[in-house]
Amino acid sequence: MSLYKLTYFNGRGRAELARLIFAAAGVSFEDETFPFSEWPGNFKADTPLGQVPYLTIDGEKIPQSIAFSRMLAKRFNMVGNDEFEQLRTDVVVDTVTDLQNNHYLREYDETVIDNQAAMEKFKSDEIPVHLERIEKIVSLYGNEGFSVGNSLKWSDLHVYDITSSMLKFDPNILNKYPKIQAIRKTVETNEKIAAYLKARPETEF
Ligand SMILES: N[C@@H](CCC(=O)N[C@@H](CS)C(=O)NCC(=O)O)C(=O)O
User: Fold this and answer.
1) Residues 93 and 178 occupy one common structural domain
2) How far is the CA of 54 from the centre of ligand 1 (A)?
3) Based on CB atoms within 10 Å of each CB, which residue in 10, 145, 187, 190 is the most buried?
4) Calpha distance 39→34 (Å, rounded)
């Protein structure tokens, strides 16, 4: 069996999808986290692309969270049963990642001159567009409580994780999206994930 080490800041961020996949699969891994203050001096130079997260699999450091999460999901049977189900699962993952990237760009990118104003626009104008898209795609591809087909996929975990961040902005933000809410319920009530969520530390991001 492979040895896994996930390296990231001490937050959920782009590492959380992989953590949820490990939790759902019941597979153990080393969760290496560090405060942002240690990033430039102690960690950045040792990363493959000058970014985190990266996953060390049997000694090889792999960057790009969606790529390594897909590989984990494949290994742990969460990608779908045939080519088309896998494709639909990727489509849902990409649709959710669009929202995640849009969020991080507005909140953390220093080249966005006024992050506060950008975040206000993000919340009022951009989040609803993304949530509509996610609700639509899971309505097309999934049955009740699942984003694709009728079993748990890594796309369900991504929907859960990224919409959790949106709920922090507004606890009513998902009221108009019953399919997303149903997926969240499936994920939250999964026994292994529920145990993980209960033990997970509260972090800033
Ligand atoms: N597409 C990459 C993006 C990685 C990324 O943007 N990481 C950010 C943190 S979420 C980072 O390393 N920022 C610090 C830096 O660039 O110095 C992924 O999904 O892993």
Assistant:
1) yes
2) 9
3) 187
4) 8
* Sheet of 54-57, strands arranged across: 30-34, 4-9, 54-57, 60-63
DSSP category for residue 74:
H
Q: What's the CA-to-centroid distance between 184 and ligand 1, angstroms? A: 26
Q: What's residue 123's pLDDT? A: 97
CATH of the domain at 160: 1.20.1050.10
Give me ligand 1 centre to Cα 31, in Å. Answer: 17
Going by CA atoms, what residue is nearest to atom 11 of ligand 1? 51
| Displacement of CA 128 from its chain's centroid (Å) | 18
> pLDDT below 50 — which residues of the chain?
none
36, part of any domain: yes
Which of 51, 69, 94 should be mutated for ligand 1, with most atoms under 8 A from CB? 51
Residue 121 inside a domain? The answer is yes
Mean pLDDT rounded to a whole number for the chain? 97
> Where in the sequence is the domain holding 149, given as residue range(s)?
83-189
Q: How far is the CA of 199 from the centre of ligand 1 (A)?
A: 25
Atom of ligand 1 nearest to the CA of 66: 19
The answer to whether position 204 is within a domain reads: no
Looking at the fold, whether 50 and 24 belong to one and the same domain comes out as yes
